[in-house]
Automatic annotation (TrEMBL):
The protein's name in its UniProt record: Polysaccharide chain length determinant N-terminal domain-containing protein
Highest taxon, organism lineage: Bacteria
Keywords: Coiled coil, Membrane, Transmembrane, Transmembrane helix
Coiled-coil portions: 143-185
InterPro entries: Bact_polysacc_biosynth/exp
Membrane-spanning intervals of the chain: 31-51, 251-271
């Protein structure tokens, strides 16, 4: 009696765990040329899409707004709202009528804080000359407003200082009179309750005015420090228009190559798995 070799049911079953036996590396090697072809094709498609896309130029300008953000225009956090407002953009177009409309400018212009004292303006346009012109116009318009605000702030500080100096002189005169009166009353030999009350009142006036003079001197000193350390806003740098076309071509080509590669791998595995399961 002949003995037939037994066969493992799992080795012949087209379904279930038999799919695990599919050699992925062998499949990829078998389909290497179609996968490579799809990778190249999609890379070329991505490059062509980027090449046919209209070039974009970016111009940036950085403004220094001062040591301390105390106003609307000297606070970098407000810059984005300001440069995209209709009022600001209308002023930009009034200074240079050759520029685009307010709606077009709003799509081109952006602003972001660099730090607590500086702001960066970014302008994107398909024409490099237009990008440069808009960037310059926006920076100078904002700079003009920031300078005006700083000058108003410094003017207010100067007026406040003058008022404090005047008050300081008046308090100093009053203090001298009260001190003189206090000395005279202390030197007099007369006594009584009224004298004691007058002495107490004059002493209180002297102490109060001495404290007020000290406070006024400190406030005047603080204003002097602000006036002496004031720095006007200025444009730190303005970059020439830079094209993003070359970088965009590489990005599109790379994305296309990655997509094509994985598409090829997916199709190859799908075909082989379907063929294996149908065997």
């Amino acid at each position: 009696m002949s003995m037939e070799p037994t066969r493992d049911a799992h080795s012949t079953s087209p379904t279930g765990d038999s799919a695990v036996g599919l050699d992925v590396f062998s499949v990829l090697w078998k389909w290497r040329y179609p996968i490579l072809g799809l990778t190249i094709v999609f890379a070329v498609v991505g490059f062509l899409l980027a090449y046919m896309k209209k070039p974009s130029f970016t111009c940036e300008s950085v403004l220094y707004l001062g040591k301390k953000a105390e106003g609307v225009y000297t606070d970098p956090r407000n810059a984005k709202f300001i440069v995209t407002s209709e009022d600001f953009l209308k002023e930009v177009t009034r200074q240079d009528p050759s520029l685009s409309s307010v709606q077009d400018l709003r799509r081109m212009v952006d602003a972001s804080p660099v730090n607590e004292t500086s702001v960066k303006f970014t302008v994107r346009a398909q024409d490099p000359d237009l990008a440069q012109k808009v960037c310059t116009a926006v920076a100078h318009t904002y700079l003009s407003r920031a300078k005006d605000e700083v000058e108003r702030s410094l003017g207010n500080l100067q007026s406040t200082k003058q008022a404090l100096v005047k008050l300081q002189a008046e308090v100093a005169k009053s203090l001298e009179r009260n001190r003189e009166a206090l000395r005279n009353m202390e030197a007099s030999g007369t006594g009584g309750v009224e004298r004691e009350l007058a002495l107490a009142r004059l002493s209180e006036y002297v102490v109060r005015e001495e404290s007020l003079l000290l406070d006024l001197a400190n406030r005047i000193q603080e204003i002097d420090l602000k006036l002496g350390g004031a720095v006007r806003p200025e444009i730190l740098e303005t970059s020439p228009p830079l094209s993003a076309s070359s970088r965009g071509s590489k990005a599109y080509a790379g994305a296309g190559a990655i997509f094509g590669f994985f598409l090829g791998v997916f199709l190859a595995l799908a075909v082989e798995i379907r063929r294996y399961l149908g065997a």
